[in-house]
Amino acid sequence: MSGRKQFDVDAALDRAMRVFWQLGYADASLDALGSATGLGRGSLYGTFGTKEVLFRRCLDHYSSIYGAQYEHALCAHPHDPVRAVQAFFDVTLDRIADPSVPGGCLIAQSAAQSPTLTQDSGMQVRGLLETQRRRIRTALTHTQADTATLDELATYVVAVNQSLAVLSRAGAPVAELRVVARLAATTVAHTLATAATPDVAETGFPPGTPGQ
């Protein structure tokens, strides 16, 4: 049909996303993006606009893929927040172990290169991290811990999650990363258990222990 684009825009966006994911925003040249997508500079600009606009669309594309997976993992265990956190980490670890995608995480990669981003792109990256934190915080809601503790735990889980991505880029084996995730889940479990039994937190002993 006359005027119809002769390529798959979504497929091109996915390939561009992998370039930003692998190289980072600063090193993702137009030549690299064009080579990956099969588009010349004119077609690249005509289809996606500027490099920054393309980058931001890639961030949205990435978050739609993995955000949905995180959401599903967390919602699968509505009455078991620790298992939900473990499932959350499993999404990250499975992605890290997947040889068909670049190592690490596009969001972690972009956050590390924040000084090279525009204000709008930097805000989008921070917003995606905040979305991740809110998902975790929601999964922790149905516990007896106080609000401050749950807020801190949500931030902690996001920090560990981003660390897994950074360590994977540095070459850490997936087996080691699974140990990190397991210990983080144990920390979450211990913190929630302690917060649910304030007498233990205050005295170091469960209620009714002889010698108190």
Automatic annotation (TrEMBL):
InterPro entries annotated for this entry? Homeodomain-like_sf (IPR009057), HTH_TetR (IPR001647), Tet_transcr_reg_TetR-rel_C_sf (IPR036271), TetR_C (IPR011075)
Q: Name one Pfam family in it.
A: TetR_N
Q: Where is the HTH tetR-type domain?
A: 6-66
Which UniProt keyword terms apply here?
DNA-binding, Transcription, Transcription regulation
Q: Which PROSITE patterns match?
A: HTH_TETR_2 (PS50977)
Residue ranges forming the DNA-binding region read: 29-48
User: Which is one GO molecular function term here?
Assistant: DNA binding
- Protein name per UniProt: TetR family transcriptional regulator
- Specify the species: Nocardia bhagyanarayanae
